[in-house]
Each structure stands twice: as C-alpha cells, then as structure tokens.
Write a structure and sequence with these properties.
With 380 residues, this protein is of the alpha/beta class. The chain folds into two domains: 250 residues, Aldolase class I (TIM Barrel, Alpha-Beta Barrel); 62 residues, Arc Repressor Mutant, subunit A (Orthogonal Bundle). It is built from 15 helices and 15 strands. Strand 1, helix 1 and strand 2 form a beta-alpha-beta unit. Helix 1 packs parallel to helix 2 and helix 11 runs antiparallel to helix 15. It is globular, with a radius of gyration of 21 Å. The mean pLDDT is 96. The structure holds iron/sulfur cluster. The site of iron/sulfur cluster (SF4) has 11 residues, from loops.
Length: 380
C-alpha cells in the first residue's frame, strides 16, 4: 500500500509557531505548479508500477490557496501517471480564511474526499496571538460549509497549551469543535520550534510557555472528553470516530511506502524487508523548480535506514499510536525485547501505564501522558 504527499508551499501569512516550509509571496505559484506536474511524471517512471496509491494528502503550507481547478489538474496528473486505488483516501488541508462554499464544492468535484480544517482555536485572543488569518466564526463556518458541500469525512486541527491558556478556555474550544460533529480531531500541544518567531519571543522572555503540569491536565481532560464523545485515541494527538482514522497517517506510522512532491517534502521507500531509503526536496521554491526544470528529480538530501533504525522507528511510531505490534517486530525484523526490557514492561503494567501480551503493547491514557519517557526506556 503506497501513499502520496503533495506539499503546497504558500501561506497568506506565517503563523508565529509554524516551522513548516511556506512563503507569503505567491508570485512563483504558476512556475511551482508546472514543476509539480513534471515532478509527478518523473517519479512515475520509477514508482508508478510498484503499488497502487491508496492515499493522497495535500498539505502545506495552505493547499486551499490553490484553486479547485488547479487541484483538479494535479489530481488528473496523479491518476494519469500512477494507479490510484479505487476508494483511495484523498485529503486536503484547508485554512478557514481561504475557503468558500463554492470552493469546497469545487474541491469535492476535483476528487478530494477528506477535508482537514485548521481551526486551532475558537478564542479570538488566541487566534490573534498565533497569527491566524481567520476568526473563530470563520472556523465554525468552514466546517459547516465543508459538510454542506457534501464532504462526509471532515477533520479539525486544534492546538492547546498556549501561553496563558486555562483548562476552561481550552475546554470551550474543544466543545465548540465537538458541536460541529467532525469525524476526526487532531489536538496538538503547542511546541516551541526553533527558528520560529514564537521561539524568539520565548528566548526574549516576552512569552512564558505553559507549565508542564497545566499541559498534562489539559491533555488528560482532552483524552477524557474525546473518549466520552466516541472518538478513539489512535495516535498521541489524533482521535477519530470508528472507521475515520486517517489512513494516510496510519501508512506513515506503519512504515508503508510513500512518495512526496514539492519543496521540503520527504519520501520513504523500502529497499528490502528490513531497510529503506528516505529522501527529501530542498526547502526552497527556486531550487526545487530549477532542479525539476533540468529534467531530473534530484533530492536535496537522502539517507539509508538500516534494520536497527527501522526497529527503533517502529517502536517509536508504535508507541505514539498507543499500540506496539510485537508480532510485527518479530515477523518483519526478527526482533524481540530482551528479558531486562520485559521486566521493565511488567513494572510499567504495575504503574498503570500499559498492558501487554505476547502480541501487543497497549498504552493506557496514563501511559499516553508519558509516552516519550516510556519509549525512551524501551529503546535503550
Ligand atoms: S497556515 Fe498552517 S502552514 Fe501556514 S504558517 Fe500557519 S500553521 Fe504554518
């Protein structure tokens, strides 16, 4: 099962916390779309016959800055060059400040069947602090418009643990999101990434990050509220009604093959049962376009992933999904935890962090809260 990712490197305005590659100047958009079209063709020569494409994801950046007709042309190119599986999941990220009822209908006609809407918050002061270009009301309207246009698979993205945020203010945002009945919720704890304006503000002590205690309290309440509303916690930051887990992300987390297009996009392809190659494009529209225009798809960088790295990644990704498949580790990588790790696991069970049998380790909500620390112990 293969996946495909398309990176649209444009935003209306950069949000202060974001370290994804995107630019505010859209002058290069036509040149970028032409290069993207060619890049898809270049990779098709090598990868199109390997596996059908089961999932496509338009991310960014802000894919909803690209018109429905241009998205339709990209979809035509993908289905013309690759084998798009019947029933493939095709996701697009949308910013509420860039969509209309008509554009949602256009994206549906273009072949998008899953809409992921970047709401982040329903609090005016938080949206302003983050540098978002939309209001809370536009966020709500975007979700309604997506459903009204005919999308049944609508996800919302939210961010919690903003500086100065209280649990009750976050609960208000979460409840307003749930009132819209999305089938999927991504709720991320704010991370202060290097090289962002937020990082500089924290360094200059203009902003104080929220305490670990409040972050933990908010996360615990989030898991609890979403579980009570029927959403399954299937990854550290992702929750879905039954059957609406994001298949694209599950493919990433299961080490499935994927090819990605656009500046900064990362690809991953197995070279054997236990090894893989990862490569990525430059974080520069100029370099990306110039490279493709020479007629060759030259990665900006690449690495070989050996068996031990694959095992580490499988443990890390499995734990983040709250479900580490021990049988897969044995069958795919001929790996079992040594006895000292088994002892550690038994102590984690006593502490209430997880349960395990010979096939699978399953995290409890308490375990999700310390997932990184548990994973570190297991990977030692
Ligand atoms: S709209 Fe999304 S991709 Fe663009 S800067 Fe904001 S968070 Fe980043």
């Amino acid at each position: 099962m293969a996946s495909m990712y398309i990176h649209i490197p444009y935003c209306e305005r950069k949000c202060i916390y974001c370290d994804f590659f995107s630019v505010e100047n859209h002058a290069s958009m036509d040149r970028f779309l032409a290069a993207l079209n060619d890049e898809i063709e270049l990779y098709a020569i090598r990868y199109a016959s390997a596996e059908p494409v089961e999932t496509v994801f338009f991310g960014g950046g802000t894919p909803s800055l690209v018109s429905p007709s241009a998205i339709g042309k990209i979809m035509d190119q993908i289905s013309g060059q690759f084998r798009l599986a019947p029933g493939a999941e095709v996701t697009m990220e949308a910013n509420p400040g860039t969509v209309t009822p008509d554009s949602f209908r256009g994206y549906l006609d273009a072949g998008i069947n899953r809409m992921s809407i970047g709401i982040q918050s329903f609090q005016r002061n938080e949206l302003e602090f983050l540098g978002r270009i939309h209001t809370a009301e536009q966020g709500e309207q975007a979700v309604r418009d997506a459903f009204n246009a005919g999308f049944t698979n609508v996800s919302v993205d939210l961010i919690f643990s903003l500086p100065g945020q209280t649990r009750s203010r976050w609960m208000d945002t979460l409840q307003r999101a749930l009132d819209l009945r999305p089938v999927h919720v991504s709720a991320y704890s704010l991370i202060v990434e290097e090289h962002t304006p937020l990082y500089t503000m924290v360094q200059k002590r203009l902003v104080t990050p929220i305490s670990e205690n409040i972050d933990a309290t908010i996360y615990e309440s989030t898991m609890d509220v979403l579980a009570r509303n029927g959403y399954r916690h299937y990854e550290i930051s992702n929750y879905a009604l039954p059957g609406y887990e994001c298949r694209h992300n599950l493919n990433y987390w299961n080490h499935s093959n994927y090819v990605s297009f656009g500046p900064s996009a990362h690809s991953f392809w197995r070279t054997s049962q236990t090894t893989a190659r990862r490569w990525w494009n430059d974080r520069s529209i100029e370099k990306y376009c110039a490279g493709i225009e020479t007629g060759a798809a030259m990665p900006g960088g690449e690495e070989t992933i050996d068996r031990l790295q694959m095992i580490d990644e499988a443990i890390f990704l499995g734990m983040r999904c709250g479900r580490l498949d021990l049988e897969r580790l044995r069958n795919e990588f001929d790996f079992s935890f040594p006895e000292r790790q088994a002892e550690l696991l038994r102590s984690f069970v006593k502490e209430g962090y997880l349960t395990f049998n010979k096939y699978v380790i399953t995290l409890t909500p308490k375990g999700f809260m310390v997932c990184d620390a548990l994973t570190e112990h297991l990977m030692q």
